[in-house]
Specification:
There is one protein chain. It is built from no helices and 29 strands. By secondary structure, the protein is mainly β.
């Protein structure tokens, strides 16, 4: 089963773009109805009625009208995507419960999937297109061997732990997500006390964002979900508490497909935890409600320890910090006195996803990245609203600290 996780983004107004194909003036559109909740799209018409994230079956040249209804009052929109995850058409974002929006388009061979751009990890589905010699979601083939940086290749099927591709230490393994709903699992042997270090990287021409995560021998998550974008290398580190076969998962965050590489470095000295975690220091600033949307975000100073509370699993707390291009931004987060799992979504000045993390009750984690442009960066604390059996929606108290251009140890 795919890891279902929601990094809830700040409500932003998204403009309509041109239809996927030319609309035929005399053609009656076929209606497709969907219900929108944070955890999923709910089919409300035809063969997809009652289904979760139903596959849409389209005919090339036929006009369609997808009408979706906001069922939970959270911000949602609907976007059609191609096989590379690029948006072909979209509706605006709506946060009013009961509101409806309709996207009218003519199906082409390019349509491969659909998603909510605010909750792409949980609200995404496939498209099957007929009448063109093509069926199902497609993926891009590599243009050269330069996009395969490893010296071994994943073995499909590897969508679950039982079929995970085994990785030898220090071996580069090339992988590829063939569709937006594909999941790749890897396993490797480690010994209790070892410092685990796994690198996941994407080629420079990659499109979209991947999610990756480490699991112990009992398939319990060891790290938060980490994002991997074009040209990036993400390092996941943990200390093995027991000997056995550990696991790594790689999946799409936003409908992305394509290639990546995995390398298990193995034992490595050094601490990976926060040297001075937020839970051990007195909170100096408390969030100010309401701060559920971008216009109400709490502006905080870099290095300030902020305390806050998610009153319910549907609550959001938004914060902003100023940073200049090239500066290093470190996000430290701890949840305590909580039920379930909390997360932090990081958005750049253009409200585009940068990174994110998840922390269970009593846990802590950090992420670090370099600011690509100057401006206001957004940090949204939210509950996990997914259906991964290892995690449940969270609420309660937390502490957040954002450091700019300084050591994470403070």
């Amino acid at each position: 089963m795919r890891i279902l996780v929601c990094f809830v983004a700040i409500l932003v107004a998204l403009s309509l773009v041109a239809p996927v194909g030319p609309v035929q003036a005399n053609q009656q559109p076929i209606e497709i109805r969907l219900g929108a909740v944070v955890s999923e799209w709910q089919g409300q018409s035809g063969d997809g009625s009652g289904a979760t994230n139903p596959t849409l079956r389209l005919e090339v040249g036929q006009q369609y009208a997808i009408t979706w209804t906001n069922l939970d009052g959270a911000p949602h929109n609907l976007a059609l995507t191609d096989s590379a995850g690029n948006v072909l058409a979209r509706t605006e974002v709506v946060a009013e419960q009961g509101a409806t929006r309709t996207l009218v388009f003519t199906a082409t061979e390019d349509v491969a999937g659909y998603r909510c751009e605010v909750h792409p990890q949980t609200m995404n589905g496939g498209v099957q297109v007929s009448g063109s010699g093509q069926a199902g979601t497609t993926s891009q083939e590599p243009t050269s061997t330069e996009n395969r940086p490893g010296n071994a290749t994943e073995r499909e099927p590897n969508d679950d732990p039982a079929n995970a591709t085994f990785v030898e230490s220090t071996t580069n393994v090339s992988g590829k997500l063939g569709s937006p709903v594909d999941v790749d699992r890897y396993s490797f042997e480690t010994t209790a006390g070892d410092q685990i270090r796994v690198e996941v990287r994407r080629p420079r021409n990659a499109v979209g964002t991947l999610l990756t995560r480490l699991y112990d021998a009992n398939l319990t998550p060891l790290t938060s979900l980490r994002t991997v974008r074009s040209g990036e290398t993400v390092v996941l580190e943990a200390v093995a508490q027991q000997s056995g076969r550990y696991h790594l998962s790689v999946e799409s965050a936003d409908g992305a497909v394509g290639e990546y590489a995995v390398r298990v470095v193995g034992q490595r000295d050094g601490e990976t935890t926060i040297a001075d975690p937020p839970t051990t220091r007195a909170v100096s600033v408390t969030e100010q409600e309401p701060n559920d949307a971008s216009q109400d975000s709490n502006a905080i100073s870099a290095g300030t320890l902020v305390g806050g509370t998610l009153a319910t699993p549907n609550d959001l707390d938004a914060f902003t910090v100023q940073a200049d291009a090239g500066e290093t931004i470190t996000v430290e987060f701890a949840s305590f006195r909580t039920g379930g799992t909390l997360g932090v979504t990081v958005l750049d000045p253009n409200l585009q996803l940068v990174d994110g993390l998840l922390v269970g009750g009593g846990g802590q984690d950090r992420i670090q990245f370099q600011a690509r442009e100057s401006g206001t960066y957004h940090f949204v604390v939210s509950s996990l609203n997914g259906s991964d059996p290892a995690e449940t929606p969270g609420f309660g108290q937390y502490a957040l600290r954002v450091l700019v251009n300084e050591s994470a140890s403070g």
